[in-house]
Design goal:
By secondary structure, this protein is mostly beta strands. The protein is built from three helices and 24 strands. The strands form eight sheets. Strands 10-16-15-12-13 form a five-stranded mixed sheet, with helices on one face. A hairpin with a 6-residue loop joins strand 15 and strand 16.
């Protein structure tokens, strides 16, 4: 192994250790609003209740996102098709509406004892362009995760359960590409590649809580999923909107959860009427978006020689002044 390889290997190990050390801190901050996940739920046939609708907005400045030097990880040219044009991949950021509406956040009720029957729809997690889709998901315990690799490269999937004691590994599998997918088809001038799914990996979650998905070959790949005991949850839409159907009357903690931050609100659900609530969520998980691009980068893009990493899928940008995302995902 030459000096450059040793240096890159050392940097990679440093990145993995840093990520692993952060997990207990992240877990503590993310679980602080989820102390009551361990409860039982009874689903009743033909149950009807109230509709609870609302909108979630972000209040406050978002911290700068983490940046990952693509040349330190596998497949920099293919994965770099989403990058800042300078050889860096920026970590996933929330999609905000014109008035800071937050999409992709989980909204759920805490400690619902009984109500409507649970959902039977499984959760599909795809990797495409070295990104987990969806970035945030939610599922009911007993459902099945289906992991699909749509990239022409291999991914090393890890599923971890966050906890106050640190991350608990639940699954480690190789996500192989479809045999007809070729990197060259996605890197050519004509971009003739068509994404096809490789062999699927399934996983049945048996524990409630917050799951983290990551790829050991590409540390910037990150995904999250909440596993809940009941079906009273929703993912906020493009304009931050959500709706929960057939909610039993009573007092609940309404939780809004996103890797960026969380919010708990006590609500009273009455009988036979529609309730509406608007929630402001303040970014309060700085450990997830805490890394600036180094001023003096000893591992610049020149390590790849005369070649360049071209962001043909998405040019990522970040406005450090206002603390908001400028680039739109694909």
């Amino acid at each position: 192994m030459n000096l450059m390889s040793l240096t890159l290997h050392h940097r990679l190990n440093q990145g993995v250790m840093k990520w692993t050390r952060l997990l207990p801190i992240v877990a503590m901050s993310l679980n602080v609003l989820l102390p009551g996940l361990a409860w039982t739920y009874e689903g009743l046939p033909d149950f009807t209740g109230q509709q609870l609708a609302g909108k979630v907005k972000l209040k406050g400045k978002i911290s700068a996102p983490k940046r990952f030097n693509l040349v330190l990880f596998s497949d920099p040219y293919y994965c770099g098709r989403i990058s800042d044009g300078k050889g860096w991949r920026i970590s996933p950021m929330p999609a905000l509406g014109e008035s800071a509406e937050l999409s992709g956040a989980v909204v759920f009720l805490e400690k619902v004892k009984k109500g409507k029957l649970g959902t039977t729809t499984d959760t599909i997690i795809q990797t495409k362009n070295c990104v987990f889709f969806p970035y945030v998901s939610v599922t009911q315990v007993g459902q099945t995760f289906h992991f699909q690799n749509w990239d022409p490269i291999e991914h090393k999937l890890e599923v971890l359960l966050t906890s106050q004691q640190g991350a608990q590994p639940l699954l480690g599998e190789s996500l192989q590409p479809h045999p007809e997918n070729r990197k060259s088809d996605f890197l050519s001038a004509g971009q003739t590649g068509i994404h096809k799914a490789g062999p699927e990996i399934t996983y049945h979650p048996h524990k409630l809580g917050i799951l983290v998905f990551r790829c050991r070959l590409h540390d910037y790949m990150e995904g999250w999923s909440l596993v809940l005991p009941h079906p009273y949850f929703a993912i906020t839409g493009k304009n931050g909107e959500f709706s929960l159907e057939d909610v039993p009357p009573g007092e609940y903690n309404l939780i809004v959860w996103h890797p960026l931050g969380q919010q708990k609100t006590i609500i009273e659900v009455g009988a036979r009427k529609t309730s509406s609530i608007n929630i402001l969520i303040t970014p309060n998980s700085p450990t997830i978006y805490a890394e600036e691009e180094p001023t003096n980068n000893p591992f610049g893009i020149d390590l790849v020689g005369d070649s360049s990493i071209v962001p043909t899928v998405e040019l990522q940008t970040w406005d450090s002044v206002s603390g908001s995302e400028l680039g739109a995902g694909s």
